Amino acid sequence: MTHKLAVLPGDGIGPDIVREACKVLETLRTNFGLDMAWEEAPVGGTAYDQSGHPLPEATLELARGADAVLLGAVGGPRWEALDYSVRPERALLALRKELDLFANLRPAKVFPELAGASALKPEVVAGIDIMVVRELTGGIYFGEPRGVEELPDGRRKGVNTLVYASDEIERIARVAFDIARKRSGRVCSIDKANVLESTELWREVVTDVGTREFPDVELSHMYVDNAAMQLVRAPGQFDVMVTTNMFGDILSDEASMLTGSIGLLPSASLNTEGAGMYEPIHGSAPDIAGTGKANPLATILSVGMMLRYSLDESELADRVERAVEKVLEDGLRTPDIAAEGEQAIGTAEMGDAVVAALRG
Ligand SMILES: NC(=O)C1=CN([C@@H]2O[C@H](COP(=O)(O)OP(=O)(O)OC[C@H]3O[C@@H](n4cnc5c(N)ncnc54)[C@H](O)[C@@H]3O)[C@@H](O)[C@H]2O)C=CC1
Ligand SMILES: CC(C)CC(=O)C(=O)O
Ligand SMILES: [Mg+2]
């Protein structure tokens, strides 16, 4: 059966990195028998400019009907003055919510060749392989009430609300425990239960799910401030980390620096039916948009996750991962992972190199 893919390049470096990921998909189709067809649609600021809305109905329908969605990134200074209801980032949140993509998997794995590219000492990051499991459709990014209101005395009040219901916590906890069973058998749940009632509930529910359904998995808890510190002090202590939407957003950006660059971290956002959206964890990087400096590997590795989690093509997923390893072993580097004085290549050349490695 032909896999139906929706490709949403978005803004900034989005189109550049998605172009390279599509080269990889095309190579898998022509050389390795991947039966797929993709359709492209605008999202984010680009869509707003075209149609006055960052998530046009046609784009949402395309995503709904697809077996998997590949997204680049959205947002940029050009759209920062817009009302929140039509900001590019709303499109991303709406897609996640509409498709019920509550489980966001963000693996942070250090490639041996890049241990020296990390901001930390090579011996601290050697062998790091962390899976951040981030709750993606709840928490403070979605809670009501929200907004900015005018107070009678003329001051303005900004409000966002951190809400979690027990079933939302249960389902993300199950995802994390399940993944841990296939890895080291350890989960660390990150919260701020010493201050926030909503995350006190988080801790209670995660503990309940663990005790009742996953007694074989070792569960620990950590406050988010300590976790942020431990991630750079001794990241090797972590295997699966499960946490709320905002904490996971922040900690995964931090974890990317163990690997050398945010341009290396892919992600999968999944619902219970196995359909998913795949995107790099980084944003639209307006500071390097149009310069050819963006690292496309996070997006290419997101294609790998798509093959594994939504398309049931794990052999092809292995091939993509091996091709990325090969280009890194061969010393190819975009500027974000090049050592000082080391020759760097551009976005398209990196994509071409992965394609060449795939072809063998
Ligand atoms: N998933 C998404 O679509 C996301 C969108 N955003 C949006 O992106 C825009 C920029 O946000 P920032 O906070 O600057 O975060 P960002 O992740 O876009 O960039 C942070 C830094 O990392 C660098 N970087 C990011 N991706 C890279 C890549 N593939 N290769 C090399 N370097 C890379 C950038 O050049 C920049 O210096 C904002 O409008 C923000 O709202 C931010 C995060 C996620
Ligand atoms: C619009 C933001 C919530 C996107 C982001 O930073 C992320 O998902 O990592
Ligand atoms: Mg983020």
Structure, described:
With 360 residues, the chain is of the alpha/beta class. It has two domains: 1-102 and 266-360, Isopropylmalate Dehydrogenase (3-Layer(aba) Sandwich); 119-259, Isopropylmalate Dehydrogenase, CATH 3.40.718. It has helices at 14-32, 45-51, 57-65, 88-98, 122-125, 166-181, 197-213, 224-233, 245-259, 297-309, 314-329, 347-359, and strands spanning 3-10, 36-40, 68-73, 103-109, 129-135, 143-150, 156-161, 186-191, 218-223, 240-243, 268-270, 276-278. A ten-stranded mixed β-sheet has the order 2-1-3-12-11-4-5-10-8-9, with helices on both faces. Helix 1 (14-32) packs parallel to helix 12 (347-359), helix 6 crosses helix 7 and helix 10 (297-309) packs antiparallel against helix 11 (314-329). It is globular. The model has no long low-confidence stretch (mean pLDDT 97). The site of 2-OXO-4-methylpentanoic acid has 5 residues, from helix 4. 1,4-dihydronicotinamide adenine dinucleotide binds at residues 13, 17, 73-76, 89, 92, 261-263, 279, 282-288, 294-295, 298, 336.
Summarize the topology:
Elements lengths: L2 E8 L3 H19 L3 E5 L4 H7 L5 H9 L2 E6 L14 H11 L4 E7 L12 H4 L3 E7 L7 E8 L5 E6 L4 H16 L4 E6 L5 H17 L4 E6 H10 L6 E4 L1 H15 L8 E3 L5 E3 L18 H13 L4 H16 L17 H13 L1
Parallel strand pairs: 1-2, 1-3, 3-12, 5-10, 8-9, 8-10
Antiparallel strand pairs: 4-5, 4-11, 6-7, 11-12
Helix pairs in contact: 1-10, 1-12, 6-7, 8-9, 10-11, 11-12
This protein binds 1,4-dihydronicotinamide adenine dinucleotide, 2-OXO-4-methylpentanoic acid (COI) and magnesium ion.
The site of 1,4-dihydronicotinamide adenine dinucleotide has 23 residues, from helix 4.
